[in-house]
Amino acid sequence: MQEHSPIQYFYDGMSSSDRQWVDAASRGSFLDQLPQATRQLIERKSTNSQQYETRENSVTSLRGVHEVETYAANEKKMNERIAELEKKLDEIASLFKTSTPKITKVH
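^ thats the sequence. predicted structure below, dont judge the formating
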C-alpha cells in the first residue's frame, strides 16, 4: 500500500489527457496496476518523450528563437540607452573632478 501512495500523487498531478493515456496504456485503470507495472509504464513514457519531439518541446524551441530575435531587433535601442547612460555618468563624474589650484609665490 505504501508503494502505491507516490503513484497516486503522480496520477493526481497529471492532466486529464495524460490520465486517459496511462489508463489506456494500462488496459484499464492505471492505479489498479502493481507498483512495478506503473513504474515501467512511467519509464516507457519518459523515454518516448525524450526521444520524440512533442508539441510542448517544439513550442519551447520556438519560444527560445523568438527571444533571440527580439533581442536582435532591440539591439540598436539598447545601444542608444547605454550611450545615454555613459554620457550621464561622465557628467556626474565631471562634477566631482577638482581642479588643482595654481600656486603663486608670496613675497
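Residues 63-96 form one domain.
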